[in-house]
Structure formats: C-alpha cells, structure tokens
Amino acid sequence: MTTSRRKRMTRLSRLIDKMVAPSLQKRGFVISRLVSEWPAIAGDMARWSRPSQMNLSRGGGGTLKLAIASGFGPVALQMKAAIIDRVNATFGYRAISEVVFVQTLPPPRGDTSPVPPAAPPEARARATWELDAKLEKVASPELRAALRRLGTPD
C-alpha cells in the first residue's frame, strides 16, 4: 500500500464533481449544482423541464436555458418569475435575470400512456368477489379494508 492512500472514506460528491465538471462546462454549465439540485429547485416543474444551458455574467444577471416538454410553454411562461426567484435563492445572489424556454423534451411519461378501457361491470364484480375470497383469511378488518382498496382498480 502506498502512503498517499488515506485510510478514511471520501465523500462521493468530491469524486463525482471532478469527473462531471468538464462535461458540464462544455455544455455551458459553470455551476453543476443547478443540474444536481434541479428537482428541489423546480419542484413539480422538474417533471417536464430541465436546465440545458446557463450563461453567467460577471455582474450577475445571466441567462438560463430550460428544455421543456412540448405543450408546457404557456405554463412555463407564467412561472418564469418564480423560476428566476428560485434559482437566485439557490445560489444566494442574482445569478440569472432571464430564462429562455426551448420545447425539446418528449412529454412526461405519465401523460403519454393511453387510458385503459373500463372493464365491463360483470368483470369488475367477478374481480371483487375473487379479491374478497383471497382476503378472507386476513384477521384485521382495517388491514383487509386497506388491501381491498389497493386491489380494486377504481
């Protein structure tokens, strides 16, 4: 063993930042924290948006380019001021003053799945009877009711 090796653990963030920083700088990210903390910064909006480029100026007031899913343009425009405030609050100073939206992301997965057709009433009744038969052996009525709620599609 060499003497340069430490005998204690190293934080994963220290190792990853060194590996990820060059590729983030090529894409225009000066600060990788925006990418890693985007779900916390954007909240519900992170489902259909992600930062694609960030240009900072020396005096503050840079530009953030967000890739958004198709169809979310009007919502994103209404949330523009909130996005700017959240990003600036994360950095602790006026890092950006402008947000540019580019609709390049595919729609969120939850919105693309087709709605399954409703089962006929006879099939639902039969499924309910089968579920009740399986839950007969459960002693606790609260647990039985919770399992029944989880087992029914409606």
- The oligomeric state of the chains shown is single chain
Query: Helices and strands, in N-to-C order?
Result: HHHEEHHEHHH
Helix content: 40-55%
Uncertain segments of ≥5 residues (pLDDT<50)? none
Distance between the termini: 62 Å
Structure characterization notes:
With 154 residues, the protein is α+β, with helices and mostly antiparallel strands. The chain has two domains: 14-108, GMP Synthetase, Chain A, domain 3; 121-151, no CATH class. It has eight helices and three strands, in the order αααββααβααα. It has helices at residues 12-26, 33-36, 38-42, 73-78, 80-91, 109-112, 121-134, 141-151, and strands at residues 49-55, 62-69, 96-105. It has a three-stranded mixed beta sheet with strand order 1-2-3. A hairpin with a 6-residue loop joins strand 1 and strand 2. It is elongated.
